[in-house]
Amino acid sequence: MPRKWVRQTRRGSWTEQNMKDALKFIDDGNSVSAASRTFKIPFSTLQERRKLNKDTKPLLGCKATFTSDQEEALSSRIKFLSDVFYGLSANEVRRAAFEFAQKNNIPHRFSVHERMAGKDWLNGFLARNKTISSRKPEATSINRITGFNREEVRKFYDNLEKVFSNIVYTPNADETGITTVQDPGTILATKGKK
To answer: How do residues 5-21 score in pLDDT, each as one tens digit?
Structure first.
């Protein structure tokens, strides 16, 4: 499936107002074929819509996996996690969408083998939720994020004591290549927020 789909047919190109006018035109005593020619709506469509008494716009394509409320909940969760310095990567969001659909028994077309939603779903999700974008956050030391205060230092040394009591280390360990600043990778976060 192409990433940017281009419409190939004129199917369903009529408007709701055209359909209402055509049905009224038929109710006024005109034929279905005359209404079809006048309002540029296929004859069979007019017959079916008249029989079902439906004048709404047709839904073309696949049915959406999530409702707008469910997508809003997913969107707000992504924003919240990025605000607390735990931004999700694109693959993590795709996995979260799969898990959300599975746990709520929502019918989906996601890959059960990979246990994640597809790239096309993610692109559509980002297009529908314009406040989220793919970002490369600034690499920040964990100490700056958590704050360097008495409580945090006490927790650090308590954990360090537990680790040293369980494992015997050789002295003079080489610390070359060990950094406290990690490369965060690309995440999904609120647009325009540092």
So the answer is: 777 877 777 888 888 88
